[in-house]
Amino acid sequence: MPGRARRTRRGAGRLRGWGGVAGMALALAVAAGALIPLTRHGGADGAAGVAGPGIARAVQAKADDCKDPEASLAPSSADGPNIDAIKRRGKLIAGVDQNSFRWGYRNPATRTLEGFDIDLVKAIAKNILGDENAVIYRAIPTSQRIPALQNGTVDVVVRTMTVNCTRIKQASFSTAYFEAGQQVLAPKTSAITGFDDSLKGKRVCVAAGSTAFDALKANAHGADYQDFTVPNQLDCLVRLQQNLVDAVVTDNALAAGQAAQDPAVQLKGSPFTTEYYGVAVKLGNTDLVQRINQVLVDYRAGGANSPWMTAYRHWLAADLPGISGPPAPKYRTG
Q: Which of 141, 80, 92 lies closest to 120, judged by CA?
């Protein structure tokens, strides 16, 4: 940031880990040539402490009631105006991450976009269009997830996006497909113990528009985070690698993958929130929400052999062990 270079140079040194996540970030950027970047245009056609499997339950919805923001609409296989628009186009336009290891990233060796979120995008495309590869991927930073839906740049956002009371006023969400929590990531040698007063006076990196940013805004524990707010969460890990910040606050689901890339860092303390990831669509696109919820019904079905568990074992189990299944869906009534 202009005017802040002097502060952020403190302690800059060599990268740690397997060549440094900064190296991976560069490799991902080079390999991402086939990924369409975020563009702005309008028009509809342009457009781990995790709960195990459970029985879906209904939640009585009232005006301004936000006790269960992750409760969504009942699933349906019916078409509607937004699904019809996707079918006419012949492609699902999905907003994703390209830098989150295990979740949404372009494999620098194969140039293939991969991850847990990417598998879910493919399942949605398969259900609507009959082809899991009928997808246009758009890379969007954390801070642009809601705007990308509002201006019709994408049909869906599948990007480790937490459903909360603020966001359900800005976008419509599917039922939860993953449970996570905010946690602190810092060097193993750091005296930081978690999201507590050990952060006082520390340089803490956070992604703009994230729930981690909201948590720090509510109680920073004396940390300096405003000078170290960045567009993308991976930018924080690069800064941590370069000793430009002392810690990162982010989803533990993302941080676990980052810790796996660099054995010199670790999660500190315990998760201090419980959050649910959902698939986001433009506010009011109810037919698409209900269709995605039907996709998720099928995605969860099958117990240990479900598509959800298959994706979990392939992408996440090594870094987030012990998860027995997805969170049970909640549906709104009334």
A: 92
Task: Look at residue 58 and give its three-state secondary structure.
Answer: strand
Looking up tokens 């099928």, which residue turns up? 298
**CATH T-level assignment (fold) for domain 182-268:** D-Maltodextrin-Binding Protein; domain 2 (3.40.190)
Here the tokens at position 311 are: 């994706």
- List the one residue out of 277, 250, 251, 104 whose CA is nearest residue 179: 277
pLDDT tens for each residue of the chain, 334 residues long: 333 333 333 443 333 443 444 444 444 443 433 455 443 333 333 333 333 444 566 665 554 568 899 999 999 999 999 999 999 999 999 999 998 889 999 999 998 899 999 999 999 999 999 999 999 999 999 889 999 999 999 999 999 999 999 999 999 999 999 999 999 999 999 999 999 999 999 999 999 989 899 999 999 999 999 999 998 887 898 999 999 999 999 999 988 888 888 889 999 999 999 999 999 999 999 999 999 999 999 999 999 999 999 999 999 999 899 999 999 999 998 6
Coil, helix or strand at residue 296: helix
Calpha distance 34→30 (Å, rounded): 10
Report pTM.
Answer: 0.79
Can you give the residue ranges of every domain in the chain? 30-37+64-179+277-322, 182-268
Provide the CATH topology of domain 30-37+64-179+277-322.
Answer: D-Maltodextrin-Binding Protein; domain 2 (3.40.190)
The reply to whether 182-268 shares the fold of 30-37+64-179+277-322 is yes
